[in-house]
Amino acid sequence: MRQAPPDYEYLETPCVLVDLDQLEANILEMTRHAIDAGIRLRPHTKVHQSAWIAERQLEAGACGIEVGTVEQAEVMANAGLFDIVIAHPFYGRHKLEILKSIVSNPRNVVCPVVDMIEQAQEIAEAGKTIGRVVPVLLKIDTGGSSRYGIPPGQPAVAVARELARLEGIDLAGIYAHEKGAQNTVEGLSQRASEDATMICDTAKLIRAAGVDIHHVSVGASPTFRSTCQLISEGRFPEITEIHPGNCVIGDIGYVMNGGNTRETCAVTVLTSVMSVSHDSYAVLDAGVKTFGADPMISKRETPDFFWKGMPSYGSVQNRPGLWLGQLHAESSCIHYRDVAERLCLGERLEIVPNNATLTINLHSRLYGVRGNVVERVIPVTGRGVGS
């Protein structure tokens, strides 16, 4: 783990650093699992929101990218990324106009995810208006996301039949995103197996009902390794694609969920000590406007989650005796669990955030570092777009 070296002194804090060596290792690991399983990899870009990082993923072997919103699809397409799945269903005239704008360009292959006939009908009308058939995926709710999706089995078959009748769209397949696994090897494998079974059984039922689909995708960051292993063992041949996202970046939330180890997190916040006037804590120049505000309170039953009643908002590199326990708008208090860790005015720290998605979305640029050198500035292409 790096400590903030003198080379970074010219960077204004707070700012976000990307360890390029670790980023590249994470990209290659993700790609290797997909290749070994013989399936396509379509990484979700909602965490880094960077066309430059997405291009590195495509160069490594990804078949395309995934985004969260139609607005994100627009900025990524404008940046030259042409094969895009939109993971979150959408509805409304403004969003449909954006879709039409993207799809009107014949180079773009954009596939929205839907979980209602009404969404698909609007997409079909948009497709007919511009003279293109728009591929769509039906979102299957595997029971862990508490968000979008149709229940697996016969409910999904009924919706798939209706979608197949709509002119202006092509039902390409089905899509699931696993959540809620226990962070153990056994727990992640069990969740991957259960959800893969649900999605593959549903795909078989849809095909048996006379609806020809060719796309079946799963593979969230915590479970994609287990999913690939199961496919490599000859199980679940129906699965064609995986779409992990956060594991290419990593954060404390995903460490707790099994998506990354602490050592493979590629993003840190570089921050400076701006006050040491108190004996029990120092004040940093980064707060909610830098980190976001995710105390991961759903993990409160985890041992040592609280210290003196405070959750942690990030993990300080190489300084286990420091506790980032309070965030304010533009500053934060970092407490001394060990008095030997007392900080000095102007000292710089690197902190792995709890939620890299929130952190990156608050910044216009990332600083790509290799060793002790800032190698490049990475624009956050989709910052604030559709969020």
Describe the structure.
With 387 residues, the protein is of the alpha/beta class. Helix content is 32%, strand content 22%. The chain is built from 11 helices and 17 strands. Strands 1, 10, 11, 12, 13, 14, 15, 16 and 17 form a 9-stranded mixed beta sheet that branches. It has an 8-stranded parallel beta sheet with strand order 2-9-8-7-6-5-4-3. Strand 7 (169-175), helix 7 and strand 8 form a beta-alpha-beta unit. The mean pLDDT is 94.
Give the topology, please.
Blueprint: E1 15-19, H1 20-37, E2 40-41, H2 51-60, E3 65-67, H3 70-78, E4 83-86, H4 93-103, E5 109-114, H5 117-130, E6 134-139, H6 154-165, E7 169-175, H7 185-208, E8 215-218, H8 224-232, E9 241-242, H9 252-257, E10 267-275, E11 281-284, H10 288-291, E12 314-316, E13 322-327, E14 332-336, E15 348-353, H11 356-361, E16 365-370, E17 373-379
Parallel strand pairs: 1-16, 2-9, 3-4, 4-5, 5-6, 6-7, 7-8, 8-9
Antiparallel strand pairs: 1-10, 10-11, 10-15, 11-14, 12-15, 13-14, 16-17
Helix pairs in contact: 1-8, 3-4, 4-5, 7-8
At the fourth level of CATH, the homologous superfamily of the largest domain is Alanine racemase
Please give the largest β-sheet: 9 strands, mixed
Terminal CA distance: 31 Å
CATH class (first level) name of the largest domain:
Alpha Beta
| SSE pattern, N- to C-terminal | EHEHEHEHEHEHEHEHEHEEHEEEEHEE
The proportion of strand residues reads: 15-25%
Tell me how many strands there are: 17
Q: Which architecture of the largest domain per CATH?
A: Alpha-Beta Barrel
CATH fold name of the largest domain: TIM Barrel
How helix-rich are the residues, as a percent range? 25-40%
Unreliable segments (pLDDT under 50, ≥5 consecutive)? none
Annotation field: number of helices: 11
Average pLDDT, to the nearest integer? Answer: 94
Radius of gyration, in Å, reads 22 Å
Structural class by SSE content: alpha/beta
Query: What number of domains?
Result: 2
